[in-house]
């Protein structure tokens, strides 16, 4: 049984369906585990260190997630299931499985709703997506993702400790999806925290129609 404090951790996307929420539905993870998919916030860098300008007064990043463990924020325990390919999930479940796809259109507005259990001082949100021609039979790595985020939503106020009232986590927010994608892609959303070394990672499988 989970100890009570494990229910008081951080936050997760509750709409639309993420890989994390699907694993909860399947009974593989608890909500508290999906709330804790945190890893270094300077992704796609591989190393810990200062946050790039103009946010260098934010707490330095811890080590960002390793390739193959990006979708779980670097967690390699039970939460590793969100990194699984369809084949790995099928083997774990003992039956055929494919990650459900959210149908989207190129350039549409993608609306996200969060539930927070510990809404940290927030720098903002950063969005990555898989490259054209990515291989769904392999785990998500930096080589599978576009190098730069396709969208950023960052608060400009620095230093964070003088602006905590402005640096609030957003319960709902929108992003414009890329206009040039087709078919199945994976979106990786980072919630960037100003006063720790972490970001919280959430992943979505989408189908551009």
The CATH superfamily is identified as chitin-binding protein cbp21
State Rg.
16 Å
Shape: globular
CATH architect. name: Distorted Sandwich
Number of helices: 3
CATH class: Mainly Beta
As a percent range, the share of helical residues equals under 10%
Oligomer: single chain
Please, how many domains? Answer: 1
Strand percent estimate: 25-35%
What structural class results from the helix and strand content?
mainly beta
Distance between the termini: 43 Å
Order of helices and strands: EHHEHEEEEEEE
CATH topology, by name, is Coagulation Factor XIII, Chain A, domain 1
Region (Disordered): 1-20
Protein name: Chitin-binding protein
Pfam family, one: LPMO_10
Organism: Pseudomonas vranovensis
What features would you describe in this structure?
- It is a single chain.
- The chain is mainly beta and 209 residues long.
- It has one domain (4-208): Coagulation Factor XIII, Chain A, domain 1.
- It is built from three helices and nine strands; from the N terminus they run βααβαβββββββ.
- The protein has helices spanning 19-25, 31-35, 86-93, and strands at 11-15, 38-40, 102-104, 109-116, 122-129, 151-154, 172-176, 183-193, 198-208.
- Strands 2, 3, 5, 6, 8 and 9 form a six-stranded mixed β-sheet that branches. It has a three-stranded antiparallel β-sheet with strand order 1-4-7.
- The longest helix is centred in the middle third of the chain and has 8 residues, at 86-93.
- The N and C termini lie far apart (43 Å).
- Mean pLDDT is 94; it is low at 1-8.
């Amino acid at each position: 049984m989970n100890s009570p404090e494990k229910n008081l951790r951080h936050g997760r996307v509750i709409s639309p369906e993420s890989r994390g929420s699907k694993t909860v539905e399947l009974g593989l993870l608890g909500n508290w585990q999906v709330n804790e998919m945190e890893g270094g916030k300077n992704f796609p860098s591989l190393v810990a260190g200062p946050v790039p300008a103009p946010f260098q007064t934010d707490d330095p990043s811890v080590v960002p997630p390793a390739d193959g463990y990006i979708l779980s924020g670097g967690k390699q325990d039970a939460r590793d299931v969100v990194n699984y390919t369809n084949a790995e999930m099928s083997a774990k479940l003992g039956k055929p499985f494919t990650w459900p796809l959210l149908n989207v259109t190129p350039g549409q507005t993608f609306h996200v709703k969060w539930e927070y259990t510990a809404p940290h001082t927030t720098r903002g949100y950063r969005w990555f997506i898989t490259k054209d021609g990515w291989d769904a039979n392999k785990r998500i790595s930096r080589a599978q993702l576009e190098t730069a985020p396709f969208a950023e939503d960052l608060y400009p106020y620095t230093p964070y400790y003088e602006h905590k009232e402005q640096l609030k986590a957003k319960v709902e927010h929108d992003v414009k999806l890329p206009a040039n994608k087709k078919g199945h892609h994976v979106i990786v959303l980072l919630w960037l925290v100003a006063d720790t070394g972490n970001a919280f990672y959430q992943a979505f499988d989408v189908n551009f129609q």
